Amino acid sequence: MTQLKPGVVTGEDYKTLVAAAKAGGYALPAVNVTGTNTLNAVLEAAAVAKSDVIIQLSNGGAQFYAGQGMPDGFQAKVLGAVAAAQHAHLLAEQYGICVVMHTDHANKKLIPWVEAMLSEGEKFYEKTGKPLFSSHMLDLSEETIDFNLSECARILERMSKMGMSLEIELGVTGGEEDGVGSDVDESADNSKLYTQPEDVLQAYDKLTPIGHFSVAASFGNVHGVYKPGNVKLRPEILRNSQALVEERHGTGHNPLNLVFHGGSGSEKEKITEAVGYGVFKMNIDTDTQFAFSQPVGSFVEANSRAFKYQIDPDDGTPYKKLYDPRKYLRAAETGIVTRLQEACEDLGSKGKSVAG
Ligand SMILES: [Zn+2]
Question: From ligand 1's centre to the CA of 327, what distance in Å?
Fold first, then answer.
């Protein structure tokens, strides 16, 4: 049985974790965090579910982590990500589960962000023998496939020296995560909504000799902005991509490491089907945002006077215990912990942590 040391996993351990998920027929939830409250809540959720977990930051999330008031926005995006990774390196082990540290969608404009994080990662690697992040993502799906793959190859070259993995995107999964892919509307034709297996094969051919990578393919998944039913989920596209690579290269079953973006609101059968085709990671950003905010709304509603007065002007009741930010932030954290139990169940990762 696979067993890894709890904490942030990188390099060979990361590959082992991905392989264990695929072999075990489950996927890991990948949750976007924006600060210590959301990050700690994800660690707690994973510990409760006895599931390993992927923690990721968008560039906007990383900037928020550093502080929205930091004068240099680009530096904030870099240092916020570094701070989150260091936080996880310090604390994750205590939660007794394996944690993948990852950054989310980076389009062409954000290549310098990824490169700056790699510079920080290289410094960290010098000191500790580990990279800061397990993986980064480059989303160049809006560019030509040649540009997409040659840039991915260039960045992966640098990353694989530290044992890092790269997530790439093929096809356009329309959505509004930091404005990437937001120009795709409901009338987009199928070749834009559905990745072609030939493109996946091309990526496999180009990147496999360089290092470890994973592919976000579009199979009708959208980033939470469509009403269910507008675009049909076709997980068979994933199966066809796996089959093409397997046949062309004589590999074993499910050679590709696939990730599922924009999965919020997907039917459980489609998730299970996609996981069966080699999906080891599913992004669930939108749902966890609501799970964090909803309990705050309820708390404020139930204790509305504590959010207007320190001491009630009518009867002198002191409200310190209720407006203490820890009260409503803890409610928010608990919302994430609860929501992620469901996610781990849907993805089959509950009880499957390989941390020993
Ligand atoms: Zn995506």
Answer: 34
